[in-house]
Amino acid sequence: MRSTGVQWPVKMINKACISLLTILALASVCLAKEAPSDGLMTDQVSIKLANDQVVKGGAIKVDVKEGVVTLSGQVELQKQKDRATTLAKKVKGVKQVINNITLREQKGGR
């Protein structure tokens, strides 16, 4: 291997590595504090609802404005409505959940 004639002292390499690690750590802290966008939260809440075995969230509309999630639509059972609120609250950046979901009327055909 051919030498270029320039060699970095070990102390200089260590300082450069420490500086880079410090910059990366500070950048990750700054990015972590940033709240996710309303669009991202809408997607995340929708995915959680759609994938949940209790909610089966295909019929639930999700709207997010400034971190406030509004749920609307219809479900069969009260536990589905309650679970939708619980799932929405677990999404990062959600400040409040307004649950406007209604219960479908049960058809009593006896």
How would you describe what is shown here?
The protein is α+β, with helices and mostly antiparallel strands and 110 residues long. The protein has helices spanning 10-33, 38-51, 78-89; strands at 60-65, 68-75, 96-103. It has a three-stranded mixed β-sheet with strand order 1-2-3, with helices on one face. Helix 3 (78-89) links the parallel strand 2 and strand 3. The longest helix has 24 residues, at 10-33. It is rod-shaped, with a radius of gyration of 25 Å.
Any key phrases for this structure?
single chain, 110 residues, alpha+beta, three-stranded mixed beta sheet, 3 strands, 45% helix, rod-shaped
Which secondary structure elements does this structure contain, and how are they paired or packed?
Layout: H1 10-33, H2 38-51, E1 60-65, E2 68-75, H3 78-89, E3 96-103
Parallel strand pairs: 2-3
Antiparallel strand pairs: 1-2
- Unreliable parts: none
Shape: rod-shaped
Q: Could you describe the largest sheet, including whether it forms a barrel?
A: 3 strands, mixed
Count of discrete alpha- or pi-helical segments spanning 4 or more residues: 3
Provide a concise account of the structure shown:
The protein has 110 residues and is of the alpha+beta class. It has three helices and three strands. The mean pLDDT is 84.
